[in-house]
Amino acid sequence: MKKLFTLIAAASCAMAMSATSYMCHLKVTVNDVVSEQDQVLVEVNKNNGGYDLSLKNFCLESDGNKLPVGNIAVSGVQGVNEYGYTTITINEPVIITAGDDPSYTEADWLGPMLGEVPIDLTSRFTDSALSANIDIEMPGMMIGVSIFGVTPVLQGDVNHDNAVNISDINTIIGIILNN
């Protein structure tokens, strides 16, 4: 019986450790007009059915004005692990939900009013870095979202070889170059 409880506790810990948060830089292009912002949160969770990725409290910014869009999330996307990173791709409609930023009311969020939004998403990530491209084609509007981020702490033994050395720098360069 004790072994069963230990196994359940270990499985619970492993599931809890499969979530990774990345603080990201975001570049949004709407019909060739570019805006950029820092400090957006992207979360990736690994589960038995694949990967869940979410961009929380997504806002379009232009000339200092913010248009709150909402949470863009995909679930259960199968990943391909090769070259030291995982790649997920999805090309299907999603429902954008209201964000939870207290600066806005539920009625302020544009996403829930849009219904199904067609997205084409490709994301590559490791435990320490993430890049993603999301293309959204709406009638009369082409939106491109480019995301690059790292987990809050990217220092020390990045490649987990139990040593801090030049191979950690090579790993970071590989992550940046998507190698």
Characterization of this structure:
The chain is mainly beta and 179 residues long. The protein has one domain: Lipocalin, CATH 2.40.128. Helices cover 15% and strands 55% of the residues. It is built from 2 helices and 9 strands; from the N terminus they run αβββββββββα. It has helices at residues 2-16, 166-176, and strands spanning 19-30, 33-47, 50-62, 65-77, 79-82, 85-95, 116-125, 129-138, 141-150. The chain has a 9-stranded antiparallel beta sheet with strand order 4-3-2-1-9-8-7-6-5, with no helix packed on it. β1 (19-30) and β2 form a beta hairpin. It is globular. It starts with a helix and ends with a helix. 22% of the residues are buried. The model is unreliable at 1-17 (pLDDT under 50).
Uncertain spans, ≥5 residues at pLDDT below 50? 1-17
Number of helices: 2
**Sheet with the most strands: spatial strand order:** 4-3-2-1-9-8-7-6-5
Radius of gyration, in Å, reads: 18 Å
- In the residues, how many domains can be counted? 1
**Shape verdict:** globular
CATH topology: Lipocalin
Distance between the termini: 46 Å
Helix content: 10-25%
User: How do the helices and strands follow one another from N- to C-terminus?
Assistant: HEEEEEEEEEH
Q: Which range does the strand content fall in?
A: over 45%
What is the CATH domain class?
A: Mainly Beta
Biggest sheet character: 9 strands, antiparallel
Helix and strand content put the structural class at: mainly beta
Number of strands: 9
